Amino acid sequence: MTGWRAGRRVELGVLAGIVASLWMLLGYVRAGEPNGLLLAQSVAPTELSAEEQATIAVFDRAARSVVFIANTAMQRDPWSFNVFEVPQGSGTGFVWNRQGHIVTNYHVIYGADSITVTLADRTETKAKVIGADPDHDIAVLQIQAPESALQPVTIGSSQALRVGQKVLAIGNPFGLDHTLTTGVVSALGRTIKSMSNRTIEGVIQTDAAINPGNSGGPLLDSAGRLIGVNTQIVSPSGAFAGIGFAVPVDTVNRIVPELIKHGKLIRPGLGISLVPDAMARRWGVKGVIIGKVGRGSAAERVGLRGARETMGGRVELGDILVAVDGKPVETVDDLMDEMEKHKVGDQVTIEYARGNRRLQATVTLQAVN
């Protein structure tokens, strides 16, 4: 019994010593003693790396330019005949200038009867469509807002981009506003199809996560400059699968001022209408068939001919365009891509087939819709 009591006293003494040590340690922490400083240092948060700080700075600055876009359509109840708004989807856009112009994808606002833009400060305002270019999936909206609430994005360049350089995407995937994702430029010079089935050239491929709702948002370089507009993803499920595409900023920078000024893209062209590719292939023609030549057009001035009906009621094919400045054109898309490399007033050399002859003409490009 005596031994048990002695052992019990030892255990109680050890326990009392532990408690006393803890109280002393707590006292050191409170008093700022060296032991307390060591303990505080051990639980202090890790300092951010220079790269993390740079990414945070880019986001803090660029996020103020990013907006949320809601697209709604008007529908009528067949029973009550009441008209009500139906959400059609949402997407992202960004502030282009302090006049309230907002850039986004055309497919984000397609079919909208009403468009609402939510700024970074949560201010909601109605927007009107200023212009659209479905062929490049670009649209320009305008809102009425104080200049102090409008922070234009910093415009960069896509000309000198390199595969592997860091990129950042800001958008509203699945309605989650101002979401940041990062990645790299995965490839350059890709081609994708727009809603109008036209080919968009020179597209940027990235592995920065882009999901539904990111469309129309900015793709930025590591300095926070706009290098592209996030447009499409490749995914069997419709969600992020590591492959996203952005329209390059050099293309956007060429189109947006035209849309603001004219409401549409003024293209250089020949002043002709074309026979669809499917019909040309059906007839075994390799090239672009001229269907009709506009009166007083650039094409008429150099003697190009469209399809015509002969005296016997037979249809004679128009001239077949086969090259522009030495580059072969086999489809309507090929021809339009070559035209877009120029501006109104430029001269180009057209090669065309007429019957069994191969001819050339130098044409001064005109403005076409």
From TrEMBL:
All residue ranges annotated as the PDZ domain in the record: 259-330
Pfam family, one: PDZ_2
Alphabetic keyword roster: Hydrolase, Protease
Matches recorded under InterPro entries: Chloro_Bact_Ser_Proteases, PDZ, PDZ_sf, Peptidase_S1_PA, Peptidase_S1_PA_chymotrypsin, Peptidase_S1C
Similarity comment: Belongs to the peptidase S1C family.
Protein name (Swiss-Prot/TrEMBL): 2-alkenal reductase
Organism of provenance: Nitrospira defluvii
Lineage of producing organism: Bacteria, Pseudomonadati, Nitrospirota, Nitrospiria, Nitrospirales
